[in-house]
């Protein structure tokens, strides 16, 4: 005959833990929710100077270490028809919601009225799911070009980074996302060759040089590193085996060439001014002069604007 499994039987088995699976060795067991303590605004700073991308963010501070990974913290854009508090009229408004699981807001946490292009930034409780919160902000979807980037820190916090693009013609969503792939992952992301080719070797070298330059605070050394990256990109284009590889190298090269002339002009002007105000060793001065002239020669080859060419010619005359 058929065995009947009653609700009472199920309840008893549940109380006895019969339906609980033993955790695996690497499983993270979240026994207590993370309690929100504070929101901190992170100021605007350069993320990628070549593409004129700026980063700002919100740090959500909790009462304990956040045992989550960024892939468990998704975001969504929602549209709501709400009444405008200033005009009283109803209109469609867009909000970004970054969902944080296993978290609670049990007290008032001050937010921000405005933060760059975000408005009414706050932490709200998910009304449908207990122990889940949203970092919520009103946005204009027309200027929301790049997705947020979530980081889980070791300081009991989650950082949600937002991005603003000054020059929309330089970058697009996928191009920027590809640029955030770690160096070790670039080969598998762009190529499918079983062994590293000469093109890959030079291209990855250029990518590393560009990232190194962006971390460099000394403008003179930054330019030197960018110029080295240009040379690596030139070599990678020569070693390319198909049109896709050539296009990849030329795209990165063109991005560099748009930025370098103004950087070189600015650095040369600053160095000339410093030389008139500070005493320097004659050998060091000659070496600096030689480097600056070399930079100007490179800039003259790819500076597209007439005023840039005029400034380069004027600076050359001063240094000679």
Into which percent range does the helicity of residues fall?
40-55%
- Report the biggest beta sheet as strand number plus sense, adding barrel if it closes: 5 strands, mixed
What characteristic shape results from the CA principal axes?
A: elongated
Q: What structural category characterises the helix and strand content?
A: alpha+beta
SSE arrangement, N to C: HEEEEEEEEEEHHHHHHH
Strand content: 25-35%
Our count of domains comes out at 2
| Rg over alpha carbons | 27 Å
DSSP, total strands: 10
User: What's the pLDDT, averaged over the residues?
Assistant: 80
Q: In terms of per-residue confidence, which ranges show pLDDT below 50 for 5 or more consecutive residues? A: 167-174, 176-194
- Trace the largest sheet across and list its strands: 5-1-2-10-9
Tally the helices. 8
- Distance between the amino and carboxyl termini: 104 Å
Q: Which keywords apply here?
A:
single chain; alpha+beta; Immunoglobulin-like; 8 helices
